Amino acid sequence: MSILRRSIIALSLINRHNLAKAINGLRNGNATNIRGGISHLIALREQKGRSPGRLSRSRFVAERWRRILALFTIENLQKAGSSIFRGNISVAVSAFRNLVAQQDAMAIPVAELGAGGIFETYPPRIHPAGVPLVTVVIPCFNYGRFIGEAVDSVLAQSFRDLEVIVVDGGSSDRLTPDLVRSLAGPQVRVFLREGRHLAGDNRNFGIAQCKSPYIVCLDADDTLHPTYIEKALFLAEHLGFDVISCGLRLMGSRSGTVGILPYPALSDLVLGNHVYTCALFHRHLLEKVGGYFDYGLGAEHAAEDWDFWIRIAATGARFGNISGEFLLNYRVHKTASLSSGPGVPDIETQRQRILARNAKLIDRDAHARSKAAKRRALSVDNACTALTRAMLRVPPVHASRTILIAIPFFLVGGAERLLAQVAQELVDCGWRVVVVSTVFQELGPTDAIEWFESVTTEVYALPRFLHPTQWTTFVEYLFTSRRFQALLIAGSRFFYGLVPYLSNRHPELAIMDFLFNAVGHAAPHQAAMPLLTGVLCENAEVRDWCLAVGWSPNEIELVQSMIDVGSYAVGPRSSDLVDRFSISPDEIVVGFSGRMSEEKAPEVFVDVAGLCRSQQRLRFIMTGGGRISGEIERRVARAPAGTRIDVCGIVDDVRPYLTLYDIFVLPSRVDGRPIAVLEAMASGCAIIASRVGGLPDLVHEGTTGYLVPPGDAEAIANHLMALADDPDTLQRLKAAARKHAEQNLDRASADAPYAKAIEAAVERRKAHISHAGLSSARPSFSGSGGSTTSP
Fold first, then answer.
1. Mean per-residue pLDDT for 738-748?
2. What is the rounded CA–CA span in Å between residue 708 and residue 26?
3. Order of strands across the sheet with 663-666?
4. pTM score
């Protein structure tokens, strides 16, 4: 029974009926019976199609399910049941998925990856010295207008030990040959061939001009995401895959994404092309199967890369695709291209043509080799691979100091905006910044990864391109290839769990924890506390809590978040928004802009709108998105008649909405020093917020707004009704809020406080190492033997 199938079975059991029975049983003290019942349900679902596996893998699976069953506690089941009963089934499933992922990620320590038979280990591969590790071959025919973008995307990779070979296959327009010639440079070689040559022949020609062990072929009208080649190399060098591709993102005349199978075998490839053109592969595979084969143009065409991947799969090569990310930007043209358009055979005709040409290769033995290769789980036994050496030799950024920022996810929200600002501040102060996330999240409008990618190319969402059991291998690679001076943990439970290993393995590392409140991560913080160098606090409440749990004052850095106040305007209202919502001049707009999540209590804002429906001057507007967006929309639909509220979802720019608001409401149950409140004050909004976290330091009672008990809809409604009847007081609160922002919240008055706090922690760690006489030697690169062929 595969791990994937067992996971699907377990997830299928999470429904309203089963959870209701489980919660009722737990309330009656029958936890043991509940676990037994879950095991019995899983066993019944497994009876069909059961197949024996290796003993070591069976032990691993058994242990995994023991950990999964341990997650069915009263607390977790009550949370899941609450979400499901409110209609948020996807929230419960996502939470369970992340709990399992964290368990899987921490189940196999880095130092014991080869223990227990879960991974076959192999020594690092040896490659020829003095040549780039990767050559990217770009064939071009009449695509001069696109070729520059393609080359630039390669040169902007986080992995820099590479070269580009551009092969013009006899372009017939006047523009392309000259543009190709102009691309020649230190890392780019160009070749212009006489006469017409097809794509496969041009790729073979380009590969013949290089000696790199790894090859990537990129079409001239496509581009690559900055981390693609490094991620593909990691799967090749550290996890033993031979061919690595990724999902694609459409651009040009179409938009959207196209996924890809994670681990295709020959049996998959004979049915469809599950490896895209940009795949990274070892050059010995090309030499083994004889290179690309062109079928012809028009009616004679068949996909030459599909043919190539089938022949490679028949040799028993391992394919591992990055299925959770879309790292190839694939251009779709309005007019026909060489592989599409009138006269080009359909996919099934191409498939039959390819299978007929390779019929002698695709036999039972070939399928057996490919199936066996797919079942293998490999891991390098030494992180000092050719990839690691290359990253140290040719880093994407030359900086004297390097930091890893570990966060849970890339969601649109105030904490993520602040952390992106922290990253930018560190870059401005000369730091090399690497950002890693460790929680599964749905891709879409709530994804804020671009905020970080605008600061640094080295941004890695581990759940999107690795199985959780591979995360620790990647983290060890990062630490070996970057040689971090500092680690800043900002809510990542996975990295909390790694603190003992990292502090032992890298004693010179300064490990800081960034706490936004004293609730969310209090337990993992205290568990890791003896090994932490210090703590960053966002507000006085957190600082006081840190003192209470045993931190000394010199180990606490209180750095209060700020914003660029000048970029937020005070009136007039956006005419577009006024027209869109039909807002009259005498109406008071009450706004909520933030993450739709339980701790922010957006449902309370909806209830407040209902309580204030008798006051016709009050209008309510919500912006933002998150895990409970669907619940909020349903709650609005059920609101009492006469409730005047609009839900706008994610907006590209929140500033016009903040200018539209007269009063900003934040009914949080848990919070720190929310950026949204700083932005609202800078926009001249009166504030009504919960008395939690750092909000009492921001909102001065009766001067800039009012504080209420967390989630108290009635108290908020009473203040709003009073302000609706007292416009003079409202205007006074608004003016005072803007003045407070100008005097106390402007980042322009701060002098790189986060960088200084982290630098101070690094110096404290150095002093501790020196005083204790501990070794701060880096891992040795000796003894990294290996093979030039696949393990």
1. 93
2. 35
3. 645-647, 618-623, 588-593, 663-666, 686-690, 705-708
4. 0.83
